[in-house]
Amino acid sequence: MADVFDEALRLASNIRDGYLRAVTYARIGYHMHRAKKPGYGKAFRYALSAVAHLDNPLLTTKALIEIGTYLHKTGSKSAGKVFSEVHDVILGFPQPLRDELLEELVARLLELGRVDDAFFYTNDIVDGVKRNDTLLKVLRAYLSRGNMRRAYLIVNRMEDEPWRSIAAVETLKAHLKREEFGSAIRILRELRSEYWLGEAMKEVARYLKTAQVPRATYEKFVDIALSLSGETGFDVLKSLLVGLGSAGELEFVGEILRKLPEERRVSILESIVEASLDRAELLEGLLGLTQGDEFGRLADFLMKRLLAQPVGREYVPVVEKIGENTVDDVLLVKVATYLAKLGEFEKAWHFASRVRGNYLRSLAFGSIAVAKLKEGDVDGAIDAALEVKDPRWGSWLLSEILAKILELQAGGEVREDIQERAESQRVLWDEG
After folding, report:
1. What is the pLDDT of residues 192-206, one digit of tens each?
2. Is the peptide bond before 162 cis (omega within 30 degrees of 0)?
3. How many angstroms separate the CA atoms of 366 and 387, rounded?
4. For 86-101, how does the pLDDT look when each residue is reduced to its tens digit (9 = 90+)?
């Protein structure tokens, strides 16, 4: 193995290009170190000697970056000295090349995990955009290591927007991941831009969905959201309340909703329903936050969502609650339909019987009849059809159910198309 490395060093001396020769020596030194060959330092001395003979400052800089990189990988303390030399060389270049090379140096240092060095050299970048962009990269490196002290140092050093706000939000996200909500609140209160404050609050809402947070902390976040104006403020508050509501904090959400106009309350409640469809007990609690027209709107929204997915017995209490607290025919039809699909015929019949309009009553009892047919109860299906006493709609429903009975007897399937066929019939009668 020793002969191979010695031969590699000998052959590298024949490389005419000074830059390539220097980098090759450094690579050989690195591989010698990996192979635990004691003489690897000689290869790096050859590399630095080759750099000393370069007469092109740009190539000198790039060669030193590569040598420093390979030295770092060996764990040598000399790497820091090489990078310092690179820095000194770069400072002699004219702009904009000077800043570009500093960016390159910092990027390499970050790759190697030498974050403190990267931070130090970033301060020499003159161009504001490049310096701030690079500082953000350094900030993320510190945050990934949990070095919050250095992260705050960078945030406080950045004066220009939007970089300062971006840095603050990045730092806030790190605090949220660590469930350091007090520190997150402090950052929120220091943000100058309402836009970035809104973005930060959306991050807060996302984390609060899963975190176990004291009520007092919720209140502080909501107070900040309420201080925002316009749609930004509402979007942020909505995100917060949806997160809290879907986490079961209904009492608190209800208190905040009472401070808002009805349209905004309903919008938030509907979004909580969307986020909580898999939690039947929570849906029932949500309905308890409403009354009057607001109850009807939320109940209708909820029933549409429930009917659009496979029915489940766990939703019977919330569906019954809707039925018992409404006189709206449309809602009663949906309640009866849902219960019929579950085979809860007595309950479905109860709510269908309360439907007053002939057209909607035919839909309610038609759903019961179809559900009974699916269970093979032909007599029950006919009884349901006969509950529609209106001459026209009663006759229509009986006709439909009889056709379905015959279709079933002929080996077909019972289709759940009562509503579609009823709408077609209504249009036909209206046109006639």
Report:
1. 777 887 788 778 877
2. yes
3. 10
4. 999 999 999 999 999 9
Q: Which of 47-56, 258-267, 296-305 has the highest mean pLDDT?
A: 296-305
Instruction: Output DSSP code: residue 229.
Output: -
Indicate the average pLDDT of the chain: 89
Please report which helix (H) or strand (E) contains residue 97, including its range: helix 97-112
pLDDT class of 346 with cuts at 50, 70, 90: very high
* DSSP letter, residue 259: T
Among the listed residues 70, 89, 87, 60, the one whose alpha carbon sits nearest the alpha carbon of residue 25: 70
Q: What is the mean pLDDT of residues 74-79?
A: 91
Integer Cα distance of 235 and 243 in angstroms? 12
Tokens of 160: 């220009």
Nearest partner of 195 among 153, 152, 166, 223, judged by Cα:
166
Give the distance from CA 187 to its chain's centroid. Answer: 21
- Residue carrying structure tokens 């029915």: 311
The DSSP line for 333-372 is HHHHHHHHHTT-HHHHHHHHTT--SHHHHHHHHHHHHHHH
Nearest to 371 by CA among 329, 401, 330: 401
H or E element that contains 197 = helix 194-208
